[in-house]
């Protein structure tokens, strides 16, 4: 790739870096925000959950909107909204103001991130060049989240409002660069080799204008996703208020059924249901959901263990968990070579197997484990992400037509957002059900029981991923040179809400 092509890629990767650092910093700052604004436990939890609800509820719609309304337009518009409401969050004086700001920020991320991903998949030729770009994009989140944990701890010492203002500066820089680097004209093939910068090749704006936008499909999809996300978030309450959880899930199922009916009859469906018959896409999305859910469910349990049982500070915990972002360093030299030699499917399966090993090693965690005893699990978990998530991103978009790349990205982001929410909610629910007392021994026992959830999720993911090996060694990634991680690391931020 030429200089301009790399510049465009860095701008688009800056989006996922921005999201990762934004939510990671908030995770560390929640205790200070709660104390300063005198928030209740429920209100503090909703500061985190509102972002997740907005992101998970609208990411499918956001992905398809990029295809139909223009990827550049959606990217620049929602990056601007992200910038504005992140800044407004820093001026919040009441809990409800912060919750609203985080919800809108989550919605903006739901439109912005799939647009960035689809700009990559339509700007770089399918094969080694696109794979390289996708691995860089997927891996950037690791650096953002890892740095965000530490920077958030430092900024919180100056004042929690800086946690909101800092992303504004980064978003403004990305926006200025994006206006210059993302081609304004839709469609039109690729640019010449002189500048080395590919151009987004298709949008369906004109077609959408001719056939009309599927507003009924958009409404039913957003409603179903919002209710489903709310039901998943409420799982962390266990049996407490189960009627509300079940009601939200039932309503989501009804709206989801209505959505399918609308799409079958629409002349210009928001989601072409045939994409769900593509086995590799469905398998990759399910794999991403389970892998991300296991990772952040595990991270949530470890955070509680270190802070509540061991008495570590937020900054100490953040520094301890930085090693889990090692994929940003290891994957550029490891993942592409392994995929090129063994095939995409086998490397994905290897990531799941390493996940099983990592989380299994932590099951017998003791009351006085040293950091040296925890280090192998944290390191292996990071390596597992280096192997699994980047190839999962490739598999989720590989072979999809250019006109549906935003949809494919939206499906992947939906899966990862629901996965992170499900993983954290599930371990929280199991922990609550397993708790039999407030003494340290009972708490430790509950932690060990909750750790079964991530082990079960990666085991199921490994089983699903193994079906992709039946057709052979899987697609290779020749010449890819970058690392892999998860853009949904953002939702791990809920780990501090409790």
From TrEMBL:
The keyword Membrane applies. Gene3D superfamilies: MFS general substrate transporter like domains, Multidrug resistance protein D. It is found in: Cell membrane. Residues 8-473 form the Major facilitator superfamily (MFS) profile domain. The chain crosses the membrane at residues 45-63, 75-93, 99-121, 133-156, 162-182, 215-233, 245-263, 284-306, 318-335, 347-365, 371-390, 411-434, 446-469. It comes from the Bacteria. Keywords: Antibiotic resistance, Cell membrane, Membrane, Transmembrane, Transmembrane helix, Transport. It is a multi-pass membrane protein. The keyword Transmembrane helix applies. This is MFS transporter. It comes from Streptomyces xiangluensis. The lineage of its organism: Bacteria, Bacillati, Actinomycetota, Actinomycetes, Kitasatosporales.
């Amino acid at each position: 790739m030429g200089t301009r092509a790399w510049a465009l890629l860095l701008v688009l990767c800056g989006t996922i870096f921005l999201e990762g650092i934004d939510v990671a910093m908030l995770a560390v700052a929640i205790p200070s925000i709660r104390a300063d604004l005198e928030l209740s436990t429920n209100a503090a939890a909703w500061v985190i959950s509102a972002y997740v609800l907005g992101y998970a509820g609208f990411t499918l719609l956001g992905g398809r909107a990029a295809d139909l309304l223009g990827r550049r337009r959606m990217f620049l518009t929602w990056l601007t909204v992200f910038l504005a409401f992140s800044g407004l969050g820093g001026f919040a004086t009441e809990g409800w103001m912060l919750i609203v700001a985080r919800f809108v920020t989550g919605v903006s991320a739901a439109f912005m991130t799939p647009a960035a991903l689809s700009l990559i998949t339509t700007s770089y030729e399918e094969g080694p060049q696109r794979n390289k770009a996708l691995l860089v994009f997927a891996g950037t989140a690791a650096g953002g989240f890892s740095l965000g944990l530490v920077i958030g701890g430092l900024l919180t010492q100056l004042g929690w409002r800086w946690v909101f203002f800092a992303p504004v500066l980064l978003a403004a820089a990305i926006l200025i660069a994006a206006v210059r680097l993302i081609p304004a004209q839709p469609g039109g093939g690729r640019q010449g080799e002189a500048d080395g910068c590919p151009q987004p090749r298709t949008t369906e704006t004109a077609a959408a204008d001719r056939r009309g936008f599927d507003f009924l499909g958009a409404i039913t999809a957003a409603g179903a996703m919002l209710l489903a996300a709310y039901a998943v978030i409420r799982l962390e309450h266990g049996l407490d208020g189960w009627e509300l959880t079940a009601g939200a899930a039932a309503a989501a199922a009804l709206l989801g059924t209505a959505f399918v009916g609308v799409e079958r009859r629409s002349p210009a469906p928001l989601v072409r249901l045939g994409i769900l018959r593509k086995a590799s896409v469905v398998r990759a999305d399910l794999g991403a959901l389970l892998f991300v859910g296991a990772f952040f469910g595990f991270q949530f349990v470890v955070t509680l263990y270190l802070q509540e049982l061991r008495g570590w500070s937020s900054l100490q915990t953040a520094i301890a968990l930085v090693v889990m972002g090692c994929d940003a360093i290891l994957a550029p030299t490891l993942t592409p070579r392994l995929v090129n030699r063994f095939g995409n499917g086998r490397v994905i399966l290897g990531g799941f197997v390493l996940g099983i090993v990592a989380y299994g090693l932590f099951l017998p965690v003791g009351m006085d484990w040293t950091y040296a005893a925890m280090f192998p699990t944290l390191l292996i978990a990071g390596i597992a992400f280096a192997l699994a998530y980047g190839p999962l991103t490739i598999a989720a978009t590989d072979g999809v037509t250019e006109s549906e790349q935003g949809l494919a990205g939206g499906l992947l982001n939906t899966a990862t957002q629901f996965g992170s929410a499900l993983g954290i909610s599930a371990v929280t629910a199991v922990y609550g059900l397993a708790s039999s007392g407030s003494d340290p021994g009972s708490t430790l026992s509950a932690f060990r029981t909750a750790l079964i959830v991530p082990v079960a999720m990666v085991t199921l993911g490994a089983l699903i991923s193994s079906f992709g090996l039946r057709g052979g060694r899987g697609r290779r990634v020749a010449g890819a040179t970058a690392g892999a991680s998860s853009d949904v690391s953002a939702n791990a931020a809920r780990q501090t809400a409790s």
